Amino acid sequence: MKEKKDMLCLSSIKLSDPIISGKSVKSEVTLKKTNGDEKKFSLIIKYESNVKKEHLPLIRMAFCMPLLNYGLFSKKFILDFQLSKSDVDILQNLNVIFSRDIFVNKIAKRRADFILHDYLPKEEEIDAKDGEPKAAIEPTKIVPDEHITNEKIDSNKCGILSSGGKESLLTYGILREIGAEVYPLYVNESGGHWRTALSAYKYHKRIDENTRKIWTNIDRFYLFMLDNLEFIRPDHRKVRADTYPLRLCIFPFYVFSLLPVFVDQKIGNLLLGSEFDDLLVNPSYKGITHYFGVYDQHQDYDIVMNNWYSKRIPGMYQWSAMRNISGLIVERILVSRYPHLAEYQRSCHSCHFENGKVVPCGKCSKCMGILLFLLANKADPRMMNYREKDILDFSKRVKPSSLRLDQDEKNQSFYLMHNKGNTTEVKPVDHVEKIHIYRDTCDIELVPKQFREGLMKIFEKHTTGYCKIEREKWVPLDKIKISV
Questions:
Q1: b/e map 21-36, b = 16+ CB within 10 Å
Q2: Residue 448 contacts by C-beta under 8 Å, 6 or more apart in sequence?
Q3: Which tens digit of pLDDT belongs to each residue from 369-396?
């Protein structure tokens, strides 16, 4: 019987000190393999204005973030620059969290076949230490914390990490309605992902002078890494899948890459489009705690970042406006209250151009979920450029068992789509249409006071009330008093 091969195939990943050149920053990544070979890649971010020298600590942290996807496979991260104590603390914290999540959700319980089978662990032999990172973090020097900026941050300004998805578009619409000064902020990856955001970006660029965009080649870096990890199948570029082969640490790179914009514009709120996620307990696999691969969409990530901001950018605050409502309700509010924004939503893994318009594929898992939400809310998917054939095929052929969505949300959506009861396949789950109140995953107290009442009043108009956890079940809750 063959022995399992070791995935620890890199002696080190070295990151050079970023070089600022006008509007661009660049850092060289050097992989040293355990066989002695070396490979290099230049990571790049381009901004719309010149990068200031005082932004260098933020750029350094941005370029560190992608490395955290590979803490299980390298002996050390060599950082050719100094970091503050809080910088090192958050990197070490995220290295542990993401290594555990990647081990559980990409290796032990993988959904796609990217890893050569000789390297896969036997389930019965897995223990908790397998999920711990192998890479030590080695900056040239650790220095005391200093504030990156001493200028006053504006708590009414809100920067939204925008993608053309329903959550970021709805966040934009609601915050504008309740009086915030909003900045739609886009990250243009060099690959096909940009097609998903393009329609919304062009709209925002046309109507809102606060719109900003940065460009990066981060998607090429991830492919470079897959090409150089010996346990990844050589033909990985040809494998069709709607999940990433390995990486999970995605949003932190976007967050840190955009922080120079926040500092320049004195934007006090950083918003991610993280919707309600029904994690009633911290999941564990073989003694390894994890977040089902969505840690950077969990409020725990916001809390960790806010602790870092307090030491490095006082006045900055990270949160999500969507965390108390399900995707079904996000879509409902967007299409009914802000149809002028909904028409630019493109939630699809494989958008393409038809007659100059960006069109969703209508077949990937993202499209299936959006079609379900639209049809459940009695909205016309053609408003988002879905083709007639894809709409008809979904209504006739797609069954609840064929979709990979939260079970409760899926059942309630099919129940509504089939006019509340004309189907025997699903039972209604009423909490899906309510506002969720639960301190561990959707704590309403984490919404800034100046936005809390306005946000909840809008939610109340499109939901069926509130709910809370009681004996590990969602139960109705009388209307809460919102403290402001």
A1: eeeebbbbbebbbeee
A2: 155, 269, 317, 319
A3: 999 999 999 999 999 999 999 998 887 7
